[in-house]
User: What shape does this take?
Amino acid sequence: MYDTPSPASSAILERDGRFLLIRRRNPPSADLFAFPGGRGEPGETPAETAVREFEEETGIAVYGPELFATYDLKQQNEAGEITSHFFLSVFLVQSDATTEAVAADDAADAGWYSVEEIRRLPVPASVLECAERLEARMQARGITA
Assistant: This one.
């Protein structure tokens, strides 16, 4: 059933050195903080999924998706059986700088977090990895929050 991963996408929006995260309401990552995103729909490209899911979960229309990372994510139960399997495409996106996030759809909460704050939140490893990579990239370019 989970031999072939289901497509999923998420999107990263950064403002002033802080990243928009939502707290997931539903499995497979219920109660974890993550970048807005979700499952792909039939006929949808990964970039289209990222843009659609971002707006559904935050109310923010985003544009210019740029592929940043991909992950083959498997979750297993205690018996070692795979309970979910997703191929996640993570995109960097842009938006109007004044639009406020409002948690909706699968999002219980939405907020802006620094990498230091993300390190203290319950997040999937992929979220922390992406945030730390982006922070390092900003520092290398001399961009500080």
